[in-house]
Amino acid sequence: MCGIIGCTGRDDAVDVVLEGLATLEYRGYDSAGMAIVSGTQAAPELRVVKRAGKLASLRHAVEGQSLPGRSGIGHTRWATHGAPTDRNSHPHVSGDGSLAVVHNGIIENHEALRAELQAAGVELASETDTELVAHLVAAERDILSAGDGAAPTTDGSRLAEALRRAVRRLEGQYALAVLDVGEPETIVAARYGAPLILGHDDGVSWLASDIAGLIAHTRDVEVLLDRQLAVLTPGGIAVSDLDGQESEGVRYKVDWDVDAAEKQGYPHFMLKEIYEQPQALTDTLLGRLGEDGTLALDEQRFADGELRRIDKVYVVACGTSYHAGMVGRYAIEHWARLGVEVEIASEFRYRDPILNPHTLVIAISQSGETTDTIAAAAHARDQRAPVLAVTNVVGSTLARQADGVLHTRAGPEIGVAATKTFLTQVVAADVLALFLAQERRTLLPEEIADAFARLEALGPLLEQVLAHDERIAELAHRLAGADYFMFIARHAGLPIALEGALKLKEISYLHAEGFPAGEMKHGPIALIDDGGPVIAIATRSHVRSKLLSNLAEVRARGAVVVALATEGDPEIAAAADHVIALPDVHELLAPILAVVPLQLLAYHVAVALDRDVDQPRNLAKTVTVE
Ligand code: F6R
Q1: How many angstroms separate the CA atoms of 197 and 203, rounded?
Q2: What distance in Å separates the CA atoms of residue 153 and residue 231, rounded to the nearest whole number?
Q3: pLDDT per position as a tens digit, 545-580
Q4: Could you tell me which residues come within 8 angstroms of residue 412 by beta carbon, excluding any fewer than 6 positions away?
Q5: Pairwise CA distance, residues 478 & 67, whole Å
Q6: What are phi and psi of 314, to 5 degrees?
Q7: Is 81 helix (H, G, I), strand (E, B) or coil?
Q8: CB 132 within 8 A of CB 114
């Protein structure tokens, strides 16, 4: 949700910022902009270019302009305050144009700040909350320049001290980067509740909202923590706290390289990421089961015996990750014999759930930065409930705040619609279920090993499912004219029906809904009319015969039924107009195979309708606002 980038120490800062924005565009694409310190050493000047629309509009605007400069900041926006216009695009500048700010997050006390600034005679050029920050920092800088006797700070930057004073006035979340002609080769950054990653190598310093923005330059990164500031110069990066005392973020080496964030010949990132799923599954399982036959988490800060005393589980997540949590519920209940509630994080955080030290809260988030999921986890911790995070991003806010972490190892996911991160979340949830079964001794070690081996065996089976791609593309072209799709399923297939509907609506903009098949006759069946597609997850399970009846009911009312069925199931084949056959696996693991045809269906429908598959309208990859 908005991407910010910064670079100081390169003669071609403008190109570095543009390239960085290209890698971050999936975080938001309502507008893009940049500020460069240009001019001469004796007379530096701040140049700002910004445009509504995708990055291509900014590139077009920059082309033909001479923007030499060694330091720059950039922004790609997912609009919150103010429509996506040129005026509201970032960077925002101070009244005298000497200082520019880019921002990811929301300043919640913007109304009070706006009133205060306007009362002081400041003229505002936009409707954004970010512009207020530019004026606040500039005002603090001017007070410091006039000399107020403040002690020098460890980083020696007046701009840093001005930002420090300004952020003390802010309520809400922010990742901010500030550029000022007065300190032409310095970028100052601050964070609270929105991610910011730093990198330095060989006379150049960078900052970015996520690793994708830095990976072309360095794999050694430092995650800035909440209430920290960073001063970036070509010589290095100094991190400090809000009191100006030296501090440190979390440093680590990124274990994927720049190729992982390229399309590699696929027409879209989404298709590439769908095809990466067999490998992502294998990577997520790799080395999990130790030689002694025990499963371990990636990070474990639980007290001794804490997990053994758990008597209730809540799973909290948003969107696709919520669906992964729903799949996980079946496995945790079945294998670990624990009661599980799965909750939308934005609802959970404002409820008053009964939590205590015996309640385990599992927070699932591919980005590890989703504001609602982080807040739901914090809500749980406030009531002394232990929190376990499942995330794809090492060092993310959620991972750092949890008592234990299980990483999905899907690699970078650039397509805005989650695919391989979903599949690996489901795999991780299954591993977690087995891990809890091990801790609680509800399964024997050989039963755990057997279930784990079944999970590992899914890799080659996923390849078989992907082989249906061409058929699914044909089907998608045939169905793309429909204006309403229903997805139905029962038991562990239900979250896959919901996920199939979400995927389709996200990228094709068609109306799609998922329902428990048994609920159809209680209302939704009224929606069925002649030729409307109903996609059913009808693989082998203890509820398959019930689903068979539901298929007959919708078909009798004119629906065109597409069934995902287990190979060699003549009854389902007879009950459907189109069948996609899936390998026969344990019913709790079947969702991992069943989601793939639905991802492909959504993809091909979106392509048939000429939609922007990787950057669907109104969406952004990481949701760092409420
Ligand atoms: C859908 C999608 C979103 C995310 C949701 C949570 O394709 O990607 O629904 O699943 O925004 O994001 P994370 O998992 O980063 O918390």
Answers
A1: 17
A2: 11
A3: 999 999 999 999 999 999 999 999 999 999 999 999
A4: 211, 212, 215, 256, 260, 261
A5: 50
A6: -115, 135
A7: coil
A8: yes
Residue 319 CA to ligand 1 center (angstroms) comes to: 5
Burial zone of 426 (CB within 10 Å; 0-12 exposed, 13-18 middle, 19+ buried) = buried
Query: Whose C-alpha lies nearest to ligand 1, atom 13?
Result: 365
Whose CA is closest to atom 15 on ligand 1?
A: 367
Which pLDDT value is given to residue 565? 97
Tell me the two tokens of residue 604.
């091909």
Pairwise CA distance, residues 274 & 599, whole Å? 7
CA pseudo-torsion sign 524, 468, 264, 274: positive
Secondary structure of 254-267 in HEC code, one letter for each residue: CCCCHHHHCCCCCC
Q: Which of 368, 319, 360, 364 is nearest to 340 (CA)?
A: 360
Asked whether the predicted pLDDT for residue 625 surpasses 90, the reply is no
The amino acid at 30: D
CA separation, residue 353 to residues 338, 341, 345, 362 (Å): 17, 11, 12, 14
Residue bearing tokens 């101070």 = 94
Residue type, 189: A
Asked if 538 and 590 touch (Cβ cutoff 8 Å), the reply is: no
Measured between alpha carbons, how far is 250 from 299 in angstroms, rounded to an integer? 15
Please state whether beta strands 187-192 and 228-233 pair in parallel, antiparallel, or not at all (unpaired). Answer: antiparallel
- Answer for the pair 31, 7: CB distance below 8 angstroms, yes or no: no
Query: Measured between alpha carbons, how far is 78 from 83 in angstroms, rounded to an integer?
Result: 10
Distance between Cα 364 and ligand 1 center (Å): 10
Q: Residue 478 — φ and ψ, nearest 5°?
A: -70, -35
**pTM score over 0.85:** yes
17 in Cβ contact with 72 (< 8 Å):
yes
Task: Provide CB contacts within 8 A for 148, sequence distance 6+.
Answer: none
The residue nearest atom 5 of ligand 1, judged by CA position, is: 319
Ligand 1 within 6 A of 8 CB? no
User: Exposed e or buried b for every residue in 552-565, given b needs 16+ CB within 10 A?
Assistant: eebbebebbbbbbb
Ligand 1 centroid, distance to 366 Cα (angstroms): 7
**Quick one: pLDDT at residue 259?**
78
Of 478, 506, 500, the C-alpha closest to 488 is 500
Per-residue pLDDT tens digits for 273-321: 999 999 999 999 999 998 899 999 999 899 988 999 999 999 999 999 9
State the alpha helices, DSSP H only, in 198-318: 269-275, 277-285
Dihedral sign of CA atoms 458, 459, 460, 461 in order: positive
Burial class (CB in 10 A: 0-12, 13-18, 19+), 291: exposed
String of DSSP letters for 455-515: HHTHHHHHHHHHTTHHHHHHHHHHHTT-SEEEEEE-GGGHHHHHHHHHHHHHHH--EEEEE
Phi then psi for 197, rounded to 5 degrees?
-120, 140
What domains lie within the chain, and their CATH numbers?
A: 3-260 (3.60.20.10), 263-456 (3.40.50.10490), 466-626 (3.40.50.10490)
370 Cα nearest atom in ligand 1: 16
